[in-house]
Design brief:
The protein is mainly alpha-helical. The chain has 14 helices and no strands.
């Protein structure tokens, strides 16, 4: 086993802090959106807005990222809040899977990363759309209740007192900030843990070992999905990493990296397990993995290399 050098430690530190710094703004956006939803979105209003048809509700949830472009770093708090507000877990899960990819910012970044190649943009969009919708439909049949853990209600360690809404603007603003404060510190510890493990993965897995399997139609997809899970790169930046592997990996492998990573990565899995029951987390991951592998492999068969 090779000795750990000072350069390895410096590299680890840079990766660790870069993941945290990159994710923090999106975590902040996510917790503030979550608090706004809690303040202004009532259960009755949600019931009126959501269509009664199961599939239609899932389809609508999959395209909400166009109106609410959230990164995967901050999507879990919003998803949890939606379920607490009475949104079916299948609809909330679809929203969580689709929004980090199906939004204008990510699609523009993908286009730029691949030199305005529309094939990669449409493939990423299409595979993400199908994975999120089919996963939502499967979950709607398999999981009936909200799947939240009993301890998923917010508590504020940084502030004292019970969070209660107010009739005044100042009171409601304090309520919003207090809820965002609680959720930020609650989710932040899982972000730090995920960044730590991600830095370990990136400093111990050599890129050269990845490229040796890059042209295998099936194995390359699995390798890039595992890589995406551990590196936990933000969805607005992952296309540039994928593009750097463009000459050595298949199209399907690159699509798998850009679809599976924003949906299921290490830091998000930790956050999900903290908020939702194990059955939900495992079912979500298994279905998403199967669909990502299948559709990415189909991409290899249909379009071949980049």
């Amino acid at each position: 086993m090779d000795k750990v050098t000072w350069a390895d430690l410096v590299n680890f530190k840079m990766i660790f802090f870069s993941v945290i710094i990159e994710a923090l703004p999106f975590i902040l956006v996510g917790v503030f959106v979550s608090s706004v939803l809690n303040l202004f979105l009532s259960e009755e209003l949600i019931q009126k807005l959501l269509p009664q048809n199961r599939v239609l509700g899932i389809i609508i949830a999959s395209i909400l990222g166009i109106l609410l472009p959230l990164c995967e770093c901050g999507i879990v708090p919003v998803t949890r809040r939606l379920v607490q507000k009475g949104v079916p877990v299948s609809v909330a899960a679809t929203f969580m899977l689709a929004t980090p990819i199906i939004n204008p910012v990510v699609l523009l970044a993908t286009s730029v990363a691949f030199s305005l190649n529309p094939k990669m943009v449409w493939l990423r969009l299409g595979v993400a759309f199908l994975v999120s919708i089919v996963t939502g439909i499967v979950l709607s049949f398999v999981l009936k209740d909200n799947q939240l853990k009993e301890n998923s209600d917010l508590h504020c360690d940084c502030c004292s007192g019970h969070m209660a809404k107010s009739d005044s603007i100042v009171g409601n603003l304090f309520y919003l900030l207090k809820g965002a404060c609680s959720e930020f510190f609650e989710m932040g510890k899982f972000l730090i843990a995920g960044a730590f493990l991600s830095a370990i993965a990136q400093t111990t897995i050599p890129y050269s070992s990845l490229s040796t399997v890059g042209q295998a139609p099936f194995l390359s997809i699995i390798v890039m999905m595992v890589f995406a899970f551990f590196v936990s790169v933000c969805s607005s930046a992952d296309a540039f990493i994928a593009a750097s592997f463009g000459s050595s990996f298949t199209t399907g492998a690159l699509i798998a990296f850009m679809v599976f990573g924003p949906m299921i990565d290490l830091k998000n899995t930790l956050m999900l397990y903290h908020s939702f029951r194990l059955r939900f987390v495992l079912t979500l991951i298994i279905v998403a993995v199967f669909l990502c592998v299948s559709l990415s492999y189909l991409s290899n068969l249909l379009v071949g290399g980049v």
